[in-house]
Amino acid sequence: MSDRTTGPGAHLAPAERIAVALDVATGAEALAMRDALGDDAGLVKLGPALFVREGMPLVRALQDSGVGVFLDLKLHDIPSVVARAAAHAAAEGVRYLTVHASGGAAMVEEAATAADAAGRGTSVLAVTVLTSLDLAAWRASASPDEETVAGAVGRLARLAIEAGAHGLVGSAREASILRSAGGPDAWVVTPGITMPGSGSADQARTVTPAEAVASGADVLVVGRGVTRSENPREALRSIRSFFEEVAS
Q: Taking phi first (over 0 means left), then psi (-120 to 50 degrees means alpha), and beta for anything else, what does residue 55 get?
């Protein structure tokens, strides 16, 4: 396990350490969920599906409501294209923007440089191995010779950090690897968080909120466990309590 007090997340309020994934169909539904979460929400995540439908107007509306926006687009293209996308996102002041570490060092470097140039505090996070992939799926899609998922995570994490990424994304199961690669100043963000007793849906390498906090993650990404709960606000509070215990 990692030291839970290390990393930039230690300086954030607990509400800012949980990114609620707004995996809903429309902007209206996203804003309704944001309203339902009230002041307990400090950060929300938009993925490609909702962003393609609603675009920057939804990002701005969410920011105007008082929450930070994690724009999870997992960009992967030639360096100049990704850099332009990062520049546009950073100009809007999004809190975090994801790119794929497998896009290569030049792509990650240009994205991070473009975000820094905007001067609005946007952090470029490099996705290592998607939490939906187990070793067999990873080998089939990317690296048939990789011995373990942990080995792939470490290799991609080191590549991204050396290229200038501000942080890393991966399962909490590999959080210690991400922290080792990123050092104390890099963001460690862990998706694939499931509530105890719930199914893992389309994820393969999942952990509970308690396990993720104990791993030393700076930010947890939680979706269905909050948004499909009978009481989303209470579900979010229950997850936040784990960070509050660490801070106390």
A: left
How far apart (Å, rounded) are the C-alpha atoms in residues 194 and 218?
17
- Whether residue 62 contacts residue 54, with contact meaning beta carbons closer than 8 Å, is answered with no
| Distance from C-alpha of 232 to C-alpha of 30, rounded to nearest angstrom | 13
Q: Which of 115, 87, 83 is nearest to 187 (CA)?
A: 115
Segment 205-245, tens digit of pLDDT: 567 888 888 888 999 999 888 999 999 999 999 888 888 76
CA distances from 100 to 60, 88, 194 (A): 24, 18, 23
Query: For the chain, what is the largest distance between any 2 Cα atoms, rounded to a whole number of angstroms?
Result: 47
**DSSP β-ladder status, 68-75 and 43-46:** parallel
| Residue 211, pLDDT score | 82
- Token readout for 234 is 């209470």
Q: Are 127 and 100 in contact (CB under 8 A)?
A: yes
Measured in whole angstroms, how far is the alpha carbon of residue 3 from the centre of its chain?
Answer: 20
Please give the helix or strand (H or E) that residue 200 lies within, else none.
Answer: none
Q: Quick one: tokens of 13? A: 């309020």
pLDDT of residue 197: 54
* CA 120 vs CA 76, 123, 124, 127, 145: distances in Å: 22, 9, 12, 21, 40
Picking from 13, 49, 88, the residue whose alpha carbon sits closest to that of residue 248 is: 13
Q: Could you list the active site residues? A: 74
Which stretches in the chain have pLDDT values below 70? 1-6, 131, 133-135, 138, 141-144, 146, 195-206, 245-248
pLDDT on residue 2: 43
123-127 vs 167-169, strand pairing mode: parallel
Q: What is the pTM assigned to this prediction?
A: 0.89
